[in-house]
Amino acid sequence: MSICPKNKSSKGHRDQRRANWKMDTMNLVNCPKCGSLMLPHRVCKNCGTYNKKEIVSVD
User: Fold this and answer.
1) What is the distance between the alpha carbons of residues 26 and 18, in angstroms, rounded to a whole number?
2) Would you say 46 and 39 are in contact if contact means Cβ atoms under 8 Å apart?
3) Core-most of 11, 14, 51, 59, by most CB within 10 Å?
4) Does residue 19 contact residue 6 with C-beta atoms inside 8 Å?
5) 5-55 pLDDT, tens per residue?
6) Residue 17 domain flag
7) Taking 80 as the threshold, does the pLDDT of residue 2 lie above it?
8) In terms of residue numbers, what domain contains 29?
9) Quick check: is 36 in a domain?
10) Is residue 10 part of a domain?
11) With a threshold of 0.70, does the pTM exceed it?
12) Is 37 helix (H, G, I), strand (E, B) or coil?
């Protein structure tokens, strides 16, 4: 059996519930080596470094 509401939810109550379903902007930081934008705690896609150490060689 599915959930069956006793009374109709008003538009305001419905919209208040849906107000928290918004997307957040991505948190980007500058790479300490090359200065390009990257996700925090990830290897930089531009230069291949993480924590000032080269992890992946980028040609």
Assistant:
1) 21
2) no
3) 14
4) no
5) 899 999 999 999 998 888 888 899 999 999 999 999 999 999 999 998 999
6) no
7) no
8) 25-59
9) yes
10) no
11) no
12) strand
For residue 48, count CB atoms less than 10 angstroms from its CB and return exposed for 0-12, middle for 13-18, buried for 19 or more: middle
| Class of residue 50 by CB neighbours under 10 A (exposed 0-12, middle 13-18, buried 19+) | middle
* Domain contains 30: yes
- Token pair, residue 35, equals 């200065």
* CA distance to 12, 23, 53, per residue, from 47 (Å): 49, 29, 10
The total of structural domains in the chain comes to 1
Question: Using CB atoms within 10 A of its CB, is residue 31 exposed (0-12), middle (13-18) or buried (19+)?
Answer: middle
Tell me the one-letter amino acid at 29: V
The identity of residue 46, as a single letter, is N
H-assigned helices in the chain: 11-18
